[in-house]
Amino acid sequence: MPDQRILTIQDISCVGQCSLTVALPILSVCGLETCVLPSAVLSTHTAAAFGEYTFRDLTEDIPAIHRHWQKEHIKFDAIYTGYLGSIKQIDYVKAILETMGVPGVKRIVDPAMADNGVLYSGFDLAYVSAMKNLCRLADVILPNVTEACFLTGVPFRTEYDADYISHLLEQLTALGAGTILLTGVSYTPDTTGVIVSENGNVSYYAHRKIAQGCHGTGDVYASAFVGAWMNGYSAYDAAKIAADYTVRCIEVTQGDESHWYGVKFEQVLPELIQMIGPKAG
Ligand code: PXL
């Protein structure tokens, strides 16, 4: 694999095993030079069980960082965005997506903003609308079913069939990304999976559902997908590797009630390296 440099833009939740503290190690073990642009610094992630969190918005640091990189002619082979701190920040991030990539840059947007039918604390419909515009610039988007509903205006349902998911996918396709990974698609109580739509080719990878909505698994999943995909795997194969790895993370965490806030992804990083295989060498 030729050397590749990726920029990931998301928050630092100091405690909570999500966003940058997950993306940086996962992308690094996949062999990528990982540069970071923190969107905000929070004491913990925003799940209610942590109580009141601190939030330092880094929006106004972004233009100066961007200018410096431009002055130094720094470019990235891929740019991957996750949780972003404000609507204004999304505009700055759009400018980075438009200007900081090498020719043929891969742009991945994880619209990390909602789960289980509700937006994360601090977000509203104006934020959703800004995120929708960011998705229009992406080559790949990875919404879960809740995020897909917010992005498209399709009413959220906890139970659905393949027709509902096809409709959701059609509406997402209209946003413009060539590749869509729709995560957390579950047709039976014991299984869940990911729909991969690549230029209209749709496939589904289903796997065992171990627990209902584990915190931080969206970020683990997206980071592992990006790591595998940048190693030359097809979107479907990368989606499969990411799903298998995320299941392993949940397996090693389940049963530890005190570890409700994230998954112990570190313990199974060696397995991710094995799944990626010699391509990462
Ligand atoms: O895992 C997504 C995420 C990222 N960053 C912050 C969050 C969340 C989910 O709640 O609160 C700050």
Map the helices and strands:
Elements: E1 5-15, H1 20-29, E2 33-44, E3 55-57, H2 62-71, E4 76-81, H3 87-99, E5 101-109, E6 114-115, E7 118-119, H4 125-135, E8 140-141, H5 145-152, H6 162-173, E9 179-182, E10 191-198, E11 201-208, H7 217-229, H8 235-253, H9 269-276
Parallel strand pairs: 1-2, 1-4, 4-5, 5-8, 8-9
Antiparallel strand pairs: 2-3, 6-7, 9-10, 10-11
Helix pairs in contact: 1-7, 3-4, 5-6, 7-8
Put the structure in a nutshell.
The protein is α/β, with parallel strands linked by helices.
Please provide a written account of the structure.
This protein is α/β, with parallel strands linked by helices. It has nine helices and eleven strands. It has a nine-stranded mixed sheet, with helices on both faces. A two-stranded antiparallel ribbon has the order 6-7. α1 packs parallel to α7, α3 runs parallel beside α4 and α5 packs across α6. The longest helix is centred in the last third of the chain and has 19 residues. The protein is globular, with a radius of gyration of 17 Å. The mean pLDDT is 95. 3-hydroxy-5-(hydroxymethyl)-2-methylisonicotinaldehyde binds next to β1 and α7.
List keywords for this structure.
alpha/beta, UDP-N-acetylmuramoyl-L-alanine:D-glutamate ligase, binds 3-hydroxy-5-(hydroxymethyl)-2-methylisonicotinaldehyde, 11 strands, 281 residues
